[in-house]
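Subject: for your reference before the review

Hello V.,

The reviewers asked for a structural picture of the protein, and I figured it would be easier to keep everything in one thread rather than splitting it across files. Below is the amino acid sequence we used in the manuscript, unchanged from the supplementary table.
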Amino acid sequence: MLKNFDEFLETSWERNQVVGAWGYNSNMNFTALSPEETNVWFFEQVFNFLRAFFGLVMPDSMEIITYDATQHVQKTGLDQQTFLDELMLVMKNLKEPLWTFRLNLNIVGFLRTSFQTDNPVRLQIQEPCSFIVWGGPDETGFQNFSISYHLFSTVVLEGEEQELWSLNQPILEKALQKWEQQSGHMIDVVDSTGDAPVQRYGFGK
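And here is what came back from the structure prediction:
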């Protein structure tokens, strides 16, 4: 159960995950919202994020924690086609306002395989990737997206360096820009691990 973004970074360090993270603070006053209004706000953030990142990520599992950790819901094996309906159903059964929402994602990106070293293929890849939103009376609506640097670095396969940055970075950049437009907030670098070369709309070369 994540309590804040610093804990998320610490966990990534411990697992030797090299990730970059982007996000923004929504500057919400949740004390003025009812529990139902708070949960609707959370749903809207998830919807906007998935619309912006359509084609780059797919839902894999989610974790929902209500205020003061009174309820803790986890779902795995999510289906992109039915995920939002499933999320809405879960939220209807909550008795308290949401505090933390975490969506773990699979990445859809270009990769060179040992079978097709000359022709990159686009695959659904299980690499560290998540979307996290914090809310509730003690929060201001901070949300962030993090993704593994693996697909944006020079990957060594069978002794040959294969450049993936030029294939995957434009897709990430476009998604972050769409997220910025749909949220109405400036998206900026939050942090990174392992000295990943993060910049405002993705990774530097």
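For the response letter, the relevant points are probably these. The radius of gyration is 17 Å. The chain has one domain: 5-203.

Happy to draft the paragraph if you're swamped.

O.
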